[in-house]
Amino acid sequence: MNNKEKIKKSISKDFDKRKNYNMIMKSINKNKNNFLKLSILPLCILLVLYIGIVLNNKEIVPDSNLPSPIININKLNNIKREPNDFYGSAIDLSGEELIIKQNFTLNFLIPNNLNLYRFIMLYSINQEFIGYNLIYFNSENTKVIDIFYSETRTKRFQCVDIEKNNMRNSKINNIDFLIGNFNDEYFVKFKYNNMYFDIETRGISETELINLLTSIVKL
After folding, report:
1. Is 144 exposed, middle or buried (0-12, 13-18, 19+ CB in 10 A)?
2. How far is CA 67 from the centre of its chain?
3. Which of 33, 156, 202, 210 gets the most CB atoms within 10 Å of its CB?
């Protein structure tokens, strides 16, 4: 038997067709799965990015079952704050208490470039709870949103009492609003869900204001 025949006999003896076929198919399937994983990964990343963008750029979708909003921006010739009638205390919320209380405000449509600066609980001089105060600023301190809300007090301390003016009402989602404007400031008062809101802003646009108000009365 020559060398060629010996080699052929040795290969035929050691080569298991079924075993090697299975090994080859397993390898192909493994590579195939890896290819699918690599192909799907960019799609997953794009989906996550898209969802993040949508969540961080929320828009108000009008409720077709409600009448169109009626917006009357009342121009103010001047603003005058009432005397300071607050002699109690203010406590900044933090930790778990902040998280619990903040759940109510999560759907407030605050412009993306403003961040929560303070979330305060307000008390009277005899330690009677009065209400909450949220303050948002941008990094340049050129835009401010100051939201006061309470179940018992109709307006904030040292408020600009726009109700003394001859003002036209606005209506959003069947809720009445009083909206005053002086230069780049807005002053808003309304009652919703048995709570009185007194909101003051500076530097934000009329559209941003209306989006904020709409988001509150959609809660």
Report:
1. middle
2. 25
3. 156
